[in-house]
Design a protein that fits this description.
mainly alpha; two-stranded antiparallel ribbon; 30 helices; 6 strands; 59% helix
């Protein structure tokens, strides 16, 4: 005899208090079956005696109390409340109390629904554990060790040479040959190429509707990255001059590993820009810098898509890529033409292959993660914190319950990852060991008291910086006009609302299921922002969109997962499946369209205008000199008289098409131009009365004209001196 046990009141109370255990106990309504409390079952005798036809009886037997299935529509309520909350936090008329109040309501409704399964995040497809025999090809290992040591020694002198590069590449290739695992049943490369060719001959190139959709989203992102690239941002500043001078060294044959100019910079952007200048024939220009970083920002997105597809669903990955593609944060740090976008550019594939390797237990993924980790260390200095993110991921994986074989594979994979990343990092490591103060100088000026003392106790600064960084998505992205629309949320209204709700849903799901990935994405965000948070000596530089750039990867991943979860619920909100699909598509398009419109305004209007007001108009000075040189003068008879806190005269030369010419001529040097009989042109700031007096004294026959700049407050004087007879 089977004894049926019913839950007690104590069981019900426990399920509500300890909700993360997942044992949800509900008290059914009277007359409703416990197995399906959403359906009302009519008594059997009524169905058999009072119903005219069997068809009507069958339909009434499953009559839903909620004809429109309000559990599907219900997900729109917390989303709507979150959108209202984030709109209240938008400048200029922002209300923090109102935003907090609506976010609290949204969180309460979302939590209530999440605990009852009304809204869920997409689950990753389960994957079988891969058995790794941990084999090693000894020849490749010894080749890697020997050539790696020789390359390390040959990297002395801070120079890439044909010799040390050859040694280094052989060492890296040897390591991959030693440890790359090819399952016995894998077809040979020749067989795979033959199969692909035969398929192409028979079917041609066919794209599925999903592939076309992915390509369309990628094309939309490309539009946002390259539209008006030559105009947004409109001006260079001193860091760009330093970069272009380094690129000029590369084009001149000086292949440095680390560029010490301007407190030191890693090498990747210099070589990338040199390649852009040669490929697109753009020379030493602002556009060459922009092209390299814009391409880097664009090709970060496919790995965000693949990451979402791996850990959630392909829809979540596509939505994550779409929102990251149109977002103002990644767009701006790609356009500003500095190394900022290299941080997420290398972190995205690192995190993708790391998550894939831990989930699937395949060493090849760990090798690829290590490869991108090592390359990232040649990109932008915040990448030096990515190894700690990798350790956090593996640590969380090991702390959660795993079979012994899986733990061994994770540790084995981590060892391979560490060694290949060190091998790829070897050139820069060699330089760092020879000049550690120079290698770490800029980092130490922010983290320690090398340049200025701490303004408060360290723990207080760290706590404030942490809070500022974690709230920048909703409130304030900092005061650095170079790469942000200052003092506004780092995310648009739609993205911020989805991220806030998704973070809460991810937290609840972790408490209930204890999936290490759910916790890792939440932990990865502050870790990837740590180089901004650790700006202890200069807390005003936190938060910043550049040093937190890689945090966009888990942020937009959560956004994609959240919207995918909401749309999945909406699909079931109508009795007709097709209508539910169209409803979810409509809501998704509406949200993406609203996000797209706001981000377009942020980048191409607000950011552009703020940047133009905050930067100096060296392009206009350069254009005046270029016109003078092409008409009545020449490049060597024009000068800019420097003035405190005015233009970088090197940028004037770059904009004039004379990249390595510094047009500075100090007031006490103006007399040196008297020996020049040709037409002369002097540009000076209106406040510089000394320059004006000197020019009028030396050249009384000169003509002075005020140049009316397109930007208010950026006018300058042109003083023309005709040639001597």
């Amino acid at each position: 005899m089977t004894i049926m046990t019913e839950p007690t009141v104590l069981d019900y109370v426990k399920s509500k208090i300890f909700f993360w255990r997942g044992d949800v106990v509900e008290i059914p309504r009277p007359g409703v079956d416990i197995a399906d409390s959403t359906e009302f079952q009519l008594p059997a005798d009524v169905l058999t005696t009072n119903i005219a036809t069997p068809e009507l009886a069958a339909e009434l037997s499953t009559l839903r109390l909620d004809i429109w299935n309000w559990s599907g529509y219900w997900v729109l309520l917390p989303l709507l409340l979150a959108l209202i909350a984030q709109r209240a936090l938008e400048p200029p008329a922002r209300s923090l109390p109102l935003g907090i109040a609506f976010y609290t309501l949204a969180a309460a409704f979302l939590l209530w629904g999440a605990l009852r399964g009304r809204v869920t995040l997409p689950d990753a497809e389960p994957v079988p554990d891969a058995a790794d025999p941990m084999t090693v090809r000894s020849i490749g290992m010894w080749v890697s060790i020997i050539f790696g040591l020789l390359a390390f020694l040959a990297f002395s002198g801070n120079r890439f040479t044909q010799f040390n590069l050859t040694l280094w590449l052989i060492a890296v290739a040897g390591f991959f040959y030693a440890f790359w695992y090819i399952p016995p049943e894998t077809p040979t490369l020749r067989a795979r190429l033959r199969t692909a060719f035969e398929r192409f001959q028979s079917n041609g190139i066919n794209f599925s509707p999903w592939t076309l959709l992915v390509l369309a989203v990628f094309a939309l992102a490309a539009f946002y990255r390259f539209y008006q690239l030559d105009q947004v941002p409109p001006e260079m500043f001193s860091d760009h001059a330093e970069k272009l001078y380094d690129v000029a060294d590369v084009l001149d044959g000086q292949y440095s590993i680390f560029f010490p100019r301007n407190t030191g910079r890693e090498a990747f952007q210099m070589y990338l820009t040199a390649a852009m200048a040669l490929i697109f024939d753009t020379g030493l220009s602002f556009l060459s810098l922009k092209l390299g970083t814009a391409f880097a920002g664009l090709f970060t997105l496919p790995f965000i898509y693949l990451l979402g597809k791996e850990v959630a669903s392909r829809r979540a990955g596509l939505l994550a890529m779409a929102f990251a593609g149109i977002a103002y944060w990644p767009n701006v740090i790609s356009r500003v033409a500095l190394r900022f976008t290299l941080y997420p550019f290398f972190a995205a594939p690192t995190l993708y292959f790391l998550a894939r390797g831990l989930r699937r237990g395949r060493r090849n993924d760990f090798l690829l993660a290590g490869l991108f980790l090592g390359l990232g260390l040649h990109g932008y200095s915040p990448s030096r914190f990515v190894p700690f993110v990798v350790l956090a991921a593996v640590g969380l994986y090991l702390l959660h319950k795993r079979p012994r074989a899986n733990r061994q594979q994770a540790v084995w994979g981590l060892i391979l990852l560490v060694f290949i990343s060190l091998l790829v990092f070897a050139p820069l490591l060699r330089y760092a060991l020879s000049d550690m103060p120079g290698f770490t100088y800029r980092t130490m000026t922010r983290m320690s008291q090398v340049e200025q003392p701490f303004s408060e106790p360290v723990w207080q600064i760290f706590t404030k910086n942490l809070w500022g960084a974690l709230t920048m998505f909703f409130w304030d992205d900092g005061e650095i006009w170079v790469h942000s629309v200052t003092h506004r949320p780092a995310l648009d209204i739609v993205s911020a609302a989805l991220f806030g709700l998704g973070s809460l849903m991810l937290t609840v799901r972790y408490l209930r299921r204890r999936d290490w990935l759910d916790l890792f994405w939440l932990v990865a965000i502050p870790l990837l922002m740590m180089t901004s948070i650790l700006s202890l000596a200069f807390p005003g530089e936190n938060p910043s969109l550049n040093r937190t750039g890689a945090a966009m990867i888990p942020v937009f991943l959560i956004i994609g997962m959240t919207l995918d979860g909401f749309l999945n619920q909406l699909r079931g909100s109508l009795r007709t499946p097709a209508r539910g699909v169209w409803l979810s598509i409509g809501v998704g398009v509406l949200l993406l369209g609203g996000s797209s419109a706001q981000n377009f305004d942020l980048v191409f209007h607000q950011y552009r205008e703020d940047f133009a007001r905050s930067s100096w108009n060296t392009s206009e000075l350069g254009a005046v000199i270029r016109q003078f040189a092409d008409t009545i003068g020449d490049e060597d008879s024009a000068w800019v008289v420097p003035y405190p806190h005015w233009v970088d005269t090197r940028l004037v030369g770059i904009n004039a098409g004379v990249p390595l010419r510094d047009y500075a001529l100090w007031p006490d040097q103006i007399t040196t131009t008297l020996d020049n009989p040709r037409s002369k042109l002097f540009l000076y700031k209106p406040e510089d009365s000394d320059a004006r007096d000197t020019l009028e004294t030396l050249y009384p026959n000169g003509a002075m004209q005020l140049y009316d700049s397109a930007i208010e407050g950026k006018d300058f004087y042109i003083y023309y001196v005709p040639p001597e007879r």
